[in-house]
Structures
1.
Amino acid sequence: MARIHWSKDASRDYWDIVGFIERHSAAAALRLGDAFEEAADRLILYPELGRVVPEFHDRSIRELIVQEYRFIYRVEGDAVTILVLVHGSRDLWRRLPRGPWDIE
C-alpha cells in the first residue's frame, strides 16, 4: 500500500478549484471534492493506475483524469505525491512551480 502526500501546490489547487465551483453550485463542488479524494484513495492500492504524463516522459509522473481536471502525481517507491491539479484546457507548463515541489 502506498502512502499519499499532497504538495502545497496541489492542496492549494484543490481548495481553489472546489471553492470556485462552490460559488456556482455547492452540490457540484462537493461532488468534485469527493472525486478528487476518491482518486487519491485509489492510488493507495494502485499507485501506477494513471497514465504517464505526456509532457514529462517520466514513468514516475502520472495522471488520472478526474472529471475535466488532470490529477498529476509522482510515484516513488511506496509513496505517492499529488503534485498539481489543473483543468484539462489549461497549459500545464504555465501552471507548474518554478522550483522544486514543496511537499507537505
2.
Amino acid sequence: MPEERVELLAVLATDADAAVADRAQNVALTQPLASFIAAISRPDADSRLFTYCADNLGDKPGIADALAKNPACPTSLVARVAPFLSSDGIQVLLDNLEWLTGDPELVLAVCKCPHATAQQ
C-alpha cells in the first residue's frame, strides 16, 4: 500500500546510516502527497512519520490538517504546522478541547492561525 511505503520511507529517513537516510529522503520526495496524508491518518502511524511530515511537508495542502486530526500525533508537531491549518483543521482541534488545551504552545499557535473563521 502506498501509505505503508511512505511511512517506511519516513522511518528510514531517520536511519543512523547517512546513506540509507539520504536515499530514503530522496525517494520520499517523489511520493504523492495523498499517500502521506493517508499514512498520517492511520491510528497506528509511527511517530517518526509525524515528525518527518511536520519537518518536510508541513506547508503542503492537507498535511497540517491530517496531523491535527490524528490524536496520536504529538501536539508539539501540530503547533509547529499550525500556520498551515485550514479552518477545518482548526475546527478539529476546537472540537477536542481537552487535547488542545493540554498544550499551551498549541493553544498559542492556533490563536495565531491565519485561516481561522470569525466564529473560531
3.
Amino acid sequence: MTGMLLANTTVNPSAVIISVGIPLVVCASVAAVVWAYFRLQAHRADAVAMAHYRKLAEDAVANQQELRAQLAQLTQKVQAVEQLMREVG
C-alpha cells in the first residue's frame, strides 16, 4: 500500500522552485551584503593610509624646501669666505 502511495505522488515543480529558490536568494543577498561591507572597510583603510602618505609627502616637501634654503645660505657664506680669501691672498 505504501508503494502505491509513493508511485502516485507527484512533485509540484513550483513548490520545489519556491522552497529552494527563496533560501538561495536570501543567502546570496546576505553574501553580497557581507562582501560589500568588507570591501567598503578595505577602501576606508586604504583612504586612511593614503591620507597619512599625503601628510608624509607634504612634510617631506616642506623639509626639503627648508634644507634648500639653508644650503643656499651656506653657499652664500662660503662664497663670501672665498671672496675674502681672494682679496687677502
4.
Amino acid sequence: MNGAAVLASGGTNATPILITLGTLFIIAGSIAVMVWSYFRLQRHRADAIAMAAYRKLAEEAVANQQELRDALQKLSEHVRSVEQLMRDVG
C-alpha cells in the first residue's frame, strides 16, 4: 500500500506510461508479424517458381525419355535385320 500512497500523493502516474508502452509493444509486434509474413510469402513464391521449373524439367525429361525409347526401338530393329542378314549370308 505504500506504493499506492506514493502515487496518490503526487508521484508519477503509471497508467499513461503503461498505456503508451502497451500500445508501442502492440504496434512493434504487429510490424514484426507483418515483416515475417512478407518474407514467408516471398519464400513461398520462390518455392513455387522453383517447383514450376522442376515440373517443366520433369516433363521435358519424360518427353526425351520417350524419344530415346523410340530411337532405341528403331536401332534394335536395324540390329535384328543386320543379324538376320549375317545369318542368311554366313
